[in-house]
């Protein structure tokens, strides 16, 4: 019984294979549509995921930071408030930041940058000095961000001007990317004492305070503790948890990935229509053959199985080819858009290839359903009379 069933199954497989190879060009064109669709879906998914990984990596180090700003109506974070922040438990460091935007001049050229007054030890906790050293406390030395260095061509030992005061560049920062409490790439870091001399007209206090929580799991607990401590009577500070921003960014890029995959899936829908057309033409050409099969005892289920196997084999073969080619497509997209290939090798990217392959197979089966149903429901006499 099992042997007979196996032979019968093999017969359907052989018939499906034969029918697909009967019209090679037509089958190849339908397969190309699926291949292109799978490549489009997988490559777009990989691009969206790689963008998310790129942003998450550049911001990942600040996931356990809290940024404390003056609330609406307040000008600065006061010394008293800073003292209260330093007493909150579960915090690794508390860094008060003096900040302003001002003109930066170098050898007759000028641009605008962020000017920060931060203690030298605190600067080293936030950024990395790539060339040179950190400034001395109270000195007229400074360290400069990567974008300003590129713009001016600044070298260690050069002198920049801030509000008619000259500062000697003793350190150049490595490129840091986007930041929450500070934006270091377009910045000049000087000591708080030097900052207060050139910005003596600013209100007393700090523009914001950067706090690093010891454990990511305790971020919300520490945030609540800060708000309970400082905002008892009225809201005087606003606390921003950077991990909530990272979660929002993840959600945004997940949506971008789905949108890009949706664009790619249009080509697969076109491929599905192509398969429908191919299978319908095959059904019409084999009308007499179907009639003979039914006349000698083939059931509706038998005919349906044969046609669905054709669609399945076409879908599997074309989708697997598309999946393999999408490895190259995803790699090229990463190089062209991100100028970086390392994100391509993330395990999560290969899930998009699997999704593309599965979508291609399902599209093939859906495209083959109506022709298979039409063939299975043919009346034997009408099929035998068909010319």
Overview in brief:
This protein has 387 residues and is α+β, with helices and mostly antiparallel strands. Helices cover 58% and strands 17% of the residues. The chain is built from 12 helices and 10 strands.
Distance between the termini: 38 Å
Number of strands: 10
- Widest beta sheet: strand line-up: 2-3-8-5-7-6
How many domains? The number is 2
Q: Approximately how much beta-strand content do the residues carry? A: 15-25%
Order of helices and strands: HHEHEEHEEHEEEHEHEHHHHH
**Overall 3D form:** elongated
Structural category is alpha+beta
Helix fraction bin? 55-70%
Q: Treating each run of at least 4 consecutive H or I residues as one helix, how many helices?
A: 12
Identify low-pLDDT runs.
Answer: none
Mean pLDDT: 81
What is the strand and helix layout of this fold?
Elements: H1 2-22, H2 24-59, E1 65-70, H3 79-86, E2 91-106, E3 109-117, H4 120-126, E4 129-132, E5 141-144, H5 146-152, E6 159-162, E7 165-173, E8 187-190, H6 192-198, E9 208-213, H7 219-230, E10 237-241, H8 242-285, H9 287-295, H10 300-338, H11 347-376, H12 380-385
Parallel strand pairs: 3-8, 5-7
Antiparallel strand pairs: 1-9, 1-10, 2-3, 2-6, 2-9, 4-7, 5-8, 6-7
